[in-house]
């Protein structure tokens, strides 16, 4: 009887764990370095409107004339839409400036904070509640 009860509890616990969706969401500090701010000027190659983070792919010209494609992590598509982003605002070919923080491993990846359009308007593209500098959910001011 007790053996059956233990087996039933174990099976129930397994179902609860397996039924819980896995989350790819991570904290800012797991992947990006707040001590490595970057400002990138370039042209959008594409925008991936995917969850849990949207991604901007931006061609950035290097001092030697070559180009590096940077991947810029942004908030969820829904969050970006609520902040004023649309597919037309940030379509491929748009020249932009991105202020953010580089990946800890030095790869051409960054967590974006501000996207600055050619007319000077700014859109906050950061994810909230990740611990990033200027995280609106934490009430921290964005650094300039």
How much strand? Answer: 35-45%
Strand order of the largest sheet: 1-2-3-5-4
Main sheet makeup: 5 strands, mixed, barrel
Shape: globular
Give a brief outline of the structure.
The protein is 19% helix and 38% strand. The chain has 144 residues and is an alpha+beta fold.
Give your account of this protein's structure.
It is a single chain. The protein is an alpha+beta fold and 144 residues long. The chain has one domain: Nucleic acid-binding proteins (OB fold (Dihydrolipoamide Acetyltransferase, E2P)), CATH 2.40.50. 19% of the residues lie in helices and 38% in strands. The protein has 3 helices and 6 strands; from the N terminus they run ααβββαβββ. A 5-stranded mixed β-barrel has the order 1-2-3-5-4.
What is the secondary structure topology, with strand pairs?
Blueprint: H1 2-19, H2 28-31, E1 32-48, E2 54-61, E3 67-74, H3 77-82, E4 95-103, E5 109-117, E6 122-124
Parallel strand pairs: 3-5
Antiparallel strand pairs: 1-2, 1-4, 2-3, 4-5, 5-6
């Amino acid at each position: 009887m007790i053996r059956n009860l233990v087996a039933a509890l174990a099976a129930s616990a397994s179902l609860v764990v397996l039924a819980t969706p896995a989350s790819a969401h991570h904290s800012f500090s797991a992947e990006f370095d707040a001590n490595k701010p970057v400002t990138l000027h370039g042209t959008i190659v594409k925008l991936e409107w995917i969850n849990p983070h949207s991604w901007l792919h931006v061609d950035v010209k290097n001092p030697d004339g070559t180009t590096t494609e940077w991947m810029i992590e942004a908030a969820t598509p829904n969050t970006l839409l609520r902040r004023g982003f649309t597919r037309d605002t940030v379509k491929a070919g748009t020249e932009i400036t991105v202020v953010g923080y580089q990946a800890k491993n030095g790869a051409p990846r960054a967590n974006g904070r501000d996207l600055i359009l050619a007319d000077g308007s700014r859109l906050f593209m950061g994810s909230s509640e990740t611990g990033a500098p200027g995280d609106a959910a934490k009430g921290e001011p964005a650094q300039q």
